[in-house]
Amino acid sequence: MASRKVGYSLKRLPSGLGSYPRVLLTRRPDLLTLTDPPEIEIRLDRVRIDPRKVAAYAAVCAFDAESVRNGYLPVTYPHVLAMPLHLRIMGLQSFPLRPMGLIHVSNTIAQPGELAAGMTVDLQVAACNYRKTDAGLTFDMDTELRRGDEVLWRETCVFLSRWPEAAQQRSGARPARPPKAPRDARVLAELEVDLARAWSYARVSADFNPIHLSDRAARFFGLRGAISHGMWSLARSLAEPPVDPPLAVGRLETQFLAPVQLPARVCVKQWDEQGQSRRALCDVRTGRVHMYAYWTTAPATPPSETATGA
What is the Cα–Cα distance from 237 to 201, expressed in whole angstroms? Predict the structure, then answer.
């Protein structure tokens, strides 16, 4: 879809929580009539990676505390650092989609440079690359951490805004049923996930989306009840030993297949597939995969856009 470009430069990191009134209350155009969604970019220079905030995030996601004290930065942490800029974009009048209806379909992270707590970096975030699919309208939320001209970390989050129900029925689009993990997959950990854990992640990530924190709010937005944060699911899966370090020439690919309905008992599983080691968060009772991730150096392929949520 053709898109005009809009750019902003900020002088300080905005409040993530303070952006939610605009995110929740700003009126959006009808999805079926949307023809020219703008590409929106926000830049912010000289953002410090606060070691105390990194430690708090690592504790909630179960990354090894000693490794973090020794300088290890979880590969998923820059997503949290940039979250206030994501929310600023979604709170703008010019952002065309209803944020509470968005589904996080997939995620790609690459870390070509060295990152550590205490560093100062420049942030650049853009909502771009809108395209129509059978299930709805998708777009990318691209994030880069830079130091001068060097890109240290980049991420592409693919989000889906579903067509209205009547349009979905006409197109025949239906969410794919999540697969089960292979029978020989190793179980690395089992854990309970509940609203208390969701609130803990919200405090360290600035992701106070009400669908993760309240059954009533989640039902208001069309869900059966509160669901876990997708990026917590990814981080918690990656935190379980052995922790694979980022590949300087590779990327971390993640597919979100089904939301974790709270409360839930889930497990972290690992298996080898097509020469790759895959990590997944799975339902203990059914064995179905909520999300899976893997490091790869293979050429990028278009993401699946039929997921049911993250």
Answer: 14
